[in-house]
Amino acid sequence: MIRNPILRGFNPDPSIVRVGEDYYIATSTFEWFPGVQIHHSRDLATWTLVARPLVRASQLDMRGDPDSCGVWAPCLTHDGNRFHLIYTDVKRYGRTTTGGASGASLRDFHNYLVTSETIEGDWSDPVYLNSSGFDPSMFHDDDGRKYLTNMLWDHRPGRNRFAGIVLQEYCAAKQMLIGEPRLIFEGTPLGLTEAPHLYKRNGCYYLITAEGGTAWNHAVTMARSRDLTGPYELHPDIYILSARDRPDASLQRAGHADLVETPSGEPWMVYLCGRPLPNRGRCVLGRETAIQPMRWAEDGWLYTASGDSIPQLDIPGRAVDAPPPAVPDRADFDDGLLPIDFQWLRSPDPDGLFSLTAHPGHLRLHGRESLGSLFEQALVARRQQAFCYSAGTVVEFDPQSYQQAAGLICYYNSSKFHYLFVTAGEHGGRQIQVMSALPDSPQADAFSQIHDIAAQGRIHLRAEVDYERLRFAFRVEGDSEWTWLREQFDASILSDEASAPGLPNFTGAFVGMACQDGSGRRLPADFDWFDYREREYLPDPMRAWCLSDPRG
């Protein structure tokens, strides 16, 4: 039995490829660095994160990229010799304010190609492709020619901004697009046509797109043609996978799909989806990746295995070869390497933000810019992958100013977070408090009650999340009891759905460590370990299993 979503909170916009007996899925990482993440499987059921290919400034520099911009919709393919990875770096999304549109039609999408002989890399420096739209995809035809497709953005007033899917040939020898782009598909009345992928089967070209937007109206559309450039006729059902008319479906927001076939010819589809909280309509795990079997019918069209076009939560009858390697609950930072589950924001210069060698056995965050910065944040975090989890860390930090802070953060973006931080008191000593950035409240920034810390020593910080409920606690090392903050915080704001209209919200929630120094002195904070454990729902987190420190 496969339990969807296969990547459990690990990012949307999937692209899948099979090379021999190995399957690889690439997914979006937005403003988080390194860019793109790739999972591996041999059975389509168990998946392991194996690579983050965009690791240096020549490949990706997202400083200044707005929230939920950066790397969108990578496409991973293989031409028999090399992997090809195409991605968009979104530099401007546009936004809507309470006073109306403010340049919302003007956006900047830059599309690049990197290649590698192996998934692990080293991946090449990028080849610039175009900036005409996003969701680029490469198609390798059986005659050896290569083609790029992407959605076309039209900023002109009165026009359809999602103007359709364009096709242009790519010359590998010249490392550039050649010829003129051709519009091959204008989409359906559902609109918002994006995420193209091309396939060839029995002499026909098949085009899959996503339509309806990336929220509740999302759908997978299919069309086909005998000629690569069209015209393309629509599938009899038009939308081959969607939950847009099924509010009872366990997986919502289904769309942005890609196809792969097993060695025996079985088609499987990976796609974006979301799992809303009961009675809240908010997906705190963000947009996730799911998979399910499909079937080619006698009419030459693709259908879900059940024929109902509904995304499935459980896939019966699929054997699993072996469980994936266990991911440790605790990152000890003892080997001088940041675990692959962790990322930071935007900057290709991690040495300016943190160090794993300055204080051996610790992650040192250098106090940098504020949590609202789009440039140099010292924030290292991992993705939330379950509705209920416990997270904790211990920090050495001796702030001298209220402008200096460090602690444990539950983070969606610069306008949506809950931050349990240590700072300096007005008259000396340390204090602990929570700052919340609230997207759906007249008071954008909210602060909890202040707790004074009289004792010296390292401070343990803890978060307990149960669906929409978040509780924080702390204790000074040596104390046996946790001090629980009396406030209960709303974890559901860490979702795509909790936001001001017109702003992009695509990333999903993260939990991790942060350090700021508004004075410019860059005071560091040292974190000895970070603990993340998925668990069952806890009716009373204050009496629950307690994160322990084996060092006492």
Q: Which structural traits does this protein have?
A:
mainly beta, single chain, 552 residues, Tachylectin-2, Chain A, disordered C terminus, Jelly Rolls, 9-stranded antiparallel beta sheet, 2 domains
SSE inventory with pairings:
Elements: E1 2-3, E2 15-19, E3 22-27, E4 32-33, E5 37-41, E6 48-51, E7 70-78, E8 83-92, E9 95-97, E10 100-102, E11 108-116, E12 127-130, E13 137-140, E14 146-153, E15 162-171, E16 176-185, E17 194-201, E18 204-211, E19 219-225, E20 233-242, E21 252-261, E22 267-274, E23 288-296, E24 302-304, E25 314-315, E26 330-331, E27 342-345, E28 354-355, E29 363-366, E30 378-383, E31 388-396, E32 404-413, E33 416-424, E34 430-437, E35 445-447, E36 451-453, E37 459-466, E38 469-476, E39 483-484, E40 489-490, E41 510-517, E42 524-534
Antiparallel strand pairs: 1-25, 2-3, 3-5, 4-27, 5-6, 7-8, 8-11, 9-10, 11-12, 13-14, 14-15, 15-16, 17-18, 18-19, 19-20, 21-22, 22-23, 23-24, 26-42, 27-30, 28-29, 29-42, 30-41, 31-37, 31-42, 32-33, 32-41, 33-34, 34-35, 34-36, 37-38, 38-39, 38-40
Model description:
With 552 residues, the chain is mostly beta strands. It folds into two domains: 2-315, Tachylectin-2, Chain A; 330-543, Jelly Rolls (Sandwich), CATH 2.60.120. Strands 4, 27, 30, 32, 33, 34, 35, 36 and 41 form a nine-stranded antiparallel beta sheet that branches. Strands 26, 28, 29, 31, 37, 38, 39, 40 and 42 form a nine-stranded antiparallel beta sheet that branches.
